[in-house]
Specification:
The structure is a single chain. The protein is mainly alpha-helical. The protein folds into 2 domains: 180 residues, Arp2/3 complex 21 kDa subunit ARPC3 (Orthogonal Bundle), CATH 1.10.1760; 195 residues, Hypothetical protein af1432 (Orthogonal Bundle), CATH 1.10.3210. Helix content is 73%, strand content 0%. The radius of gyration is 30 Å and the shape is elongated.
Amino acid sequence: MVLAVGAVVAGVMVVSVGGRAEVSGSFIVILLAGAFLGPTSACAAAIVAELAATRRIKTRPYAFASNLLAAMLPALAAANLIRLLAPNGARQTLGFYLVVAAAGALCFLLSFAIAATYNQVLNHRAALDLETLRAHAPSLVINTLLAVAGAGIYLRLGLDGIAFALSAVFAFSYMLQLVERARGRSQQYVALSWGVLAGLMRSLDIRDQRAARHAAAVARFARDIAAAVGMSERQRELAHTAGLLHDIGHFALSDRVAERGRTLTDEDWVAIHRHPALGADMLRDLGNYGPVAEIVLAHHERIDGRGYPNGLTGDQIPEIAKIISVAEVYDTITASDTYRTQMSSFEALTELRRVAGSQLDARYVEVLGGLLTGESVEYRHADAADFDSELDMERRIREAGAHA
């Protein structure tokens, strides 16, 4: 009865976890049923757990049939292996625990083989390979050890002990459910927020056809500079993201500001000087972009304090904002779609060195110069930089789930 209740709870609490190590309550219940009650009970536990799981996740009929087969056959095989190698009188020995562990491995491998066959024959997809098997090996080890420990607890403490142990396993499974829900919400939020930001950038690109390419180029240069000076992976990612979004505030400017050949009025320049603050406000409103917002706000500040919007100087300017400034000026004067006469890479570096120490941070200018040495024209002149490639939405959503 304890294992029957356990099978129901295991099925109801089933969760698909993105990590490599997962705890399966149903696996543990089936293995314990096979070890102490025999093949029929192990098979019954598998059926009960699968029925409960089907109700929980609303599995389609044909998938339920396949899942039931993948649960019953390994359960029968594992239980019969235990009955064959460890009859009732041989319990409480090391050999018995080794047999239970071997039965767990057999159960896992048979389930994997059935799933691989189903995937290849019925779904017409590539069979699950050894790499997939290796990825799930930690789950096999953890669940088998838990089942062996459960067997030892039952032999020494009886039903009370095993009931307590299973309760602990199910409590942990419930926590996994909560983590998985949080991961899903985080991925949805990132997809939504980046969808909004990417939509704004594409709208901006329609008005100013250099916007998306320029953002991608600045992001790439900024990430490479950050890596070259030894910044952490998180800081490099922050530099890359800030590069993608540094001009998002241009979306709030009037169309005439983006028109080529137009002489800008004093009012237009006032509006342009507001775009870092406008962009930072947009990012803060979306949440989780606070660090990026601060960089975007400061990317037009100058070392000598003559920048905007706040007239920051030297160490008051965030380091990544200084990197963005160098990357932006370099791309602006070397790209073919710029408003001014295009410079060569050598001419651009000469210009950057001229304003180093006043407008730009001299250290990051020299780092960029080192990065450009020996690189192809395609890298030095980022005319083919692609916003979608640099954005890599799928990676960002995946990483958001991993860090949830």
